[in-house]
Design brief:
This is Glycoside hydrolase family 43 protein. It contains no helices and 24 strands. By secondary structure, the chain is mostly beta strands. It binds beta-L-arabinofuranose. The site of beta-L-arabinofuranose has 14 residues, from strand 2 and strand 17.
């Protein structure tokens, strides 16, 4: 993403603000939390932010993360355990730079960690690493997933056991550079796409081995209430990055960040492949440029994990948080304001 635009209301660190929730981790910077419940515990798979001394630019170069830590908690509000380094960029054979937002899945005794990373040609692809322990350490495969590109993998296993990966992010996440699985340009933004359908997040089934795509990634199209795809100029609603999928009341809730308008939105469909109909905002802008989340059910309640920049006031040094999420009886989600007024 372009993380250079700090001049929004969302990022005004000078105003006196009260945050809805406290940071979950205070001794290192963490972001992009993908939460899952394994063996009755919550495990969190975030990015590990640090200050590499790289000046902010439109390419997101200052997000120069080089390892992952995994965290767990037995209860919401209880202590958070840091399980240490689970994967280091130096142990990934195809690595160039920048370990961005990861996610994880479990199948038949193995945990699969999916991670975006630039390859040696500076092109984002998605890798996979495995472990027998949800807290790692993880061992990376020798090559990225064949046919993968861009960033922000989010992996969802449906109630029928089929597993899907959603991925993609525009601007610094490079999704706009790809068409039909081929890199077709080196454009930095989607900004010349105003009256065309917006770029879509990608969705693809994973093979049973969890390490390969089962076919070509498809568009996870978001439609408006008239059944028309959202347009490129619709920056308040179009997909930008940071997707997530959860199933509620037999409907598929596709949730995502709008990037340069700093919203978390949701769109609902009848199939994990989409299309999804835009329904609204689920979280207003946090402090900091980026907004990225995950949603889980734990002990009968629903929670959203997210991040902001409460600890640092700097857009590339973030901290993860959690708060409750409410599904209304009519299928909508109650809007969360990350600040207390
Ligand atoms: O953390 C780096 C990038 O920033 C993530 O991949 C995006 O979702 C945004 O949060």
């Amino acid at each position: 993403a372009n993380k250079n635009d700090t001049a929004t209301a969302a990022t005004d660190t000078t105003a006196k603000v009260k945050f809805l929730s406290p940071p979950l981790v205070k001794d290192i910077y963490t972001a992009d939390p993908s939460a899952h419940v394994f063996n009755g515990k919550i495990y969190i798979y975030p990015s590990h932010d640090y200050d590499a001394g790289i000046k902010e630019n439109d390419n997101g170069d200052h997000f120069a993360m080089k390892d992952y830590h995994i965290f767990s908690m037995d209860s919401i509000g209880g202590p958070v355990t840091d399980h240490g380094v689970a994967l280091d960029v130096k142990d990934i054979p195809w690595a160039g730079r920048q370990l961005w937002a990861p996610d994880v899945a479990y199948k038949s005794g193995t945990y699969y960690l999916y991670f975006p990373l630039k390859n040696k040609q500076d092109v984002f692809q998605i890798g996979v690493a495995t472990s027998k322990n949800p807290a790692g350490p993880f061992k990376a495969e020798h090559e990225p997933i064949a046919g993968s590109y861009s960033i922000d993998p989010a992996v969802f296993t449906d109630t029928d056991g089929k597993t899907y990966m959603y991925f993609g992010g525009i601007w610094g996440g490079q999704l706009q550079q790809w068409a039909n699985g081929k890199r077709v340009n080196d454009s930095k933004t989607d900004l010349k796409n105003d009256d065309a359908p917006a770029l879509s997040c990608k969705v693809v089934r994973l093979k049973d081995n969890m390490k390969e795509f089962d076919g070509a990634p498809q568009d996870a199209v978001i439609l408006d209430s008239l059944g028309k795809p959202l347009l490129g100029k619709d920056h308040d609603r179009r997909f930008f990055e940071g997707s997530w999928m959860h199933k509620y009341d037999n409907k598929y809730y596709f949730t995502y960040s709008t990037g340069d308008t700093h919203l978390l939105c949701y769109a609902v469909g009848d199939s994990p492949m989409g299309p999804f109909t835009y329904k609204g905002v689920l979280m207003k802008p946090v402090q900091g440029w980026t907004t990225h989340h995950s949603i889980i059910e734990f002990k009968g309640k629903w929670y959203i994990f997210y991040h902001d920049t409460e600890l640092s006031g700097k857009t590339h040094l973030r901290n993860i948080k959690v708060t409750e999420l409410t599904h209304n009886a009519d299928g909508t989600i109650a809007v969360i304001d990350p600040f207390i007024k």
